[in-house]
Specification:
The complex is a heterodimer of chains A (about 250) and B (about 325). Chain A is globular. Chain A is mainly alpha-helical and about 250 residues long. Chain A has 14 helices and no strands. Chain B has two domains: about 220 residues, P-loop containing nucleotide triphosphate hydrolases (Rossmann fold, 3-Layer(aba) Sandwich); about 70 residues, Alpha-Beta Plaits (2-Layer Sandwich), CATH 3.30.70.3190. In chain B, helix 3 packs across helix 4 and helix 8 packs across helix 11. Classes of the chains: A mainly alpha (about 250), B alpha/beta (about 325). Chains A and B meet through helix 1, helix 5 and helix 14 of A and helix 2 and helix 3 of B.
Chain lengths: ~250, ~325
């Protein structure tokens, strides 16, 4: 546990010691702030009485896109940069397990994402102060964004183990995540037999319930299983140095 | 303390090393010598636990690096050829991180371990500096300090003086020599003079196999291609060379210098033959003054080149 904490702390310090994390946080907050404002303005104009369907659903679906844009840029450096600098080699000579290194780095990326996400709560909090509303749907939406973030971070971490080039890592994560999102967009092209199965695998569909204020255990299990699968791949990829070399 | 038993490593279809066995005892500095691509770094990485061997066994203080990797790595300090450093961190910050990762428990013990490593590598003045702002020589010392954190009994140093200027190299050699009095140190290098000056024993690696392992002096003596003697006399150069060539057991005579009626020749003798007395008698018997007569030592570099050349000629 101590090693996980040490790796996490060092990773966070390294992220925050450079401009990338701050630029990403600024972009994240700028975009989520804009979406909150525009969705609220639209709701005030034409939203009707149902706040969950008229405001929060749109806001969380928009926030999801921002997360999709920013998280692979947070995770791309996790292993790629260490591999490029040669520091991964030194890390592997310390008495630490690959799983501890992976956990520390994933937690650091997740902490940064959660920090950014927490800052987006300022808008809804201000709105609550002016016009109190039912909090549960908003909490469900944020819970969905947290789980989605865990899945994105796990996928991005796995992509980062493959190459020493951060751009390659980011593009690989984008490729997997966007495909997992778009997979069910054209059901006619997929075919009637495969469509139901693919629907079950779509990241988009499994977030939709959260955005509407509903926490379905199937969605929770799916997102956690998605994360676990990519963490497993990341762990195996780190172990591949046994036959691939550095 | 450091032991490799018939290590082999393949990456895909390519064999990086094929049969490497060596041992380093506590209090010993062993040089790991070989041309580029011989497999030195691969061997060190296996010993350091970076990746497992395809065959064979690597032990650190009796702990198998594959079966008991954490126990083995706790007793090990590794400094890769290119110092692996987080440039955005401070020197003390990185050493503190390394101390934590090496199971140095407690804030006080970690602080003491960091201070000890800083002192040993003479880095006290730059402890608070960002690593990105340090010179190459200081970074190299920091790489060594990282290996020393936690006071491990076994050290693996991959080309520790690579890229350093002569003064920095001399400092680094002194430092390693000092470390070797109480630890087992395996130093890879292709700088022969460095290995000769630094190491108690030398292991020569070529094409993934150990060619030879011995002390630098014995290795040079054993591999000496021929006995050689330099003879200087107050004599005409051509006459001196002809007289020396006529001595029984002389294979070849080369004129080295001639000036002011003096000549200096290098005489190559048949292996195992000591003809210094006959050479001296021939010079003085010819009525010339004998100014100098000294055997020429075969350097480790010559021995190494002879060994590698002989191995390369094998099918």
């Amino acid at each position: 546990m101590t090693k996980i904490f040490l790796v996490c702390r060092r990773e966070l310090a390294s992220m925050c010691g450079g401009p990338l994390a701050w630029v990403l946080a600024a972009v994240f907050l700028l975009l989520t702030g804009y979406f909150f404002y525009s969705d609220l303005a639209l709701f005030v104009l034409v939203g009707g009485a149902n706040q969950t369907r008229g405001l929060w659903r749109f806001m969380f679906l928009d926030f999801r896109l921002v997360a999709l844009l920013v998280v692979p840029l947070v995770t791309m450096r996790l292993f790629a940069e260490e591999r490029k600098q040669g520091t991964l080699e030194l890390l592997w000579t310390f008495p630490v397990r690959d799983g501890e290194v992976l956990a520390g780095k994933v937690l650091a990326a997740l902490a940064l994402y959660l920090g950014m996400l927490a800052a987006t709560a300022v808008g809804p909090a201000l709105l609550y102060a002016l016009h109190p509303f039912a909090v549960a749907p908003v909490l469900a939406g944020y819970a969905g964004l947290v789980l989605l973030g865990v899945a994105f971070v796990a996928c991005g971490a796995a992509a980062s183990t493959v190459s020493e080039n951060q751009v390659v890592s980011a593009m690989l994560a984008y490729g997997v995540l966007v495909f997992a999102w778009f997979a069910t967009w054209n059901e006619a092209a997929i075919g009637e037999r495969i469509a139901p199965a693919l629907l079950q695998l779509s990241l988009f569909d499994h977030f939709y319930g959260f955005a509407q204020g509903v926490i379905d255990s199937r969605d929770v299990v799916y997102l956690l299983a998605f994360a676990a699968f990519f963490l497993f791949l990341a762990h195996r990829s780190l172990g591949a140095r046994a036959w691939r070399g550095l | 303390m450091i032991e490799a038993r018939q290590l082999a490593k393949r990456f895909g279809g390519r064999a990086a090393i094929e049969d490497v066995s060596l041992g380093v005892a506590r209090g010993e500095v062993v040089g790991f010598l070989g041309p580029n691509g011989a497999g030195k770094t691969t061997t060190l990485r296996i010993l350091a636990g970076v990746f497992p061997p395809s065959r064979g066994q690597a032990l650190i203080d009796g702990h198998d690096v594959v079966r008991a990797p954490l126990a083995a790595r706790r007793r090990l300090g590794y400094a890769p050829e290119r110092p692996a450093l987080h440039l955005e961190m401070t020197v003390a910050g990185l050493l503190d991180f390394a101390a934590g990762m090496k199971d140095v428990g407690g804030a006080r013990a970690r602080r003491a371990a960091v201070e000890d490593a800083l002192a040993r590598a003479a880095l006290g003045e730059v402890a608070a500096r960002r690593i990105g702002a340090l010179s190459k020589g200081v970074r190299q010392r920091l790489g060594l300090a990282l290996a020393l954190v936690g006071d491990p009994p076994a050290l693996l140093l991959d080309e520790p003086t690579a890229g350093l200027d002569p003064e920095q190299s001399a400092d680094m050699r002194r430092l390693i020599r000092g470390l070797g009095t109480e630890r087992a140190v395996l130093v890879s290098s292709h700088a022969l003079a460095e290995v000769e000056a630094l190491c108690d024993r030398v292991v020569i690696l070529h094409r993934g196999r150990v060619l030879s392992a011995d002390t630098p002096a014995r290795l040079a003596a054993r591999l000496r291609p021929a006995s050689r003697v330099d003879v200087e006399a107050a004599a005409p150069a051509d006459a001196l060379a002809a007289a020396l060539a006529a001595v029984p057991g002389v294979r070849r005579v080369d004129l080295l210098t001639q000036a002011n009626g003096h000549a200096r020749c290098r005489v190559e003798l048949e292996p195992g033959r000591d003809a210094r007395a006959e050479l001296a008698a021939r010079v003085t018997g010819s009525g010339w003054g004998l100014l100098a007569l000294a055997p020429v030592e075969t350097s480790l570099e010559e021995a190494f080149l002879a060994l590698v050349a002989a191995e390369s000629e094998r099918p």
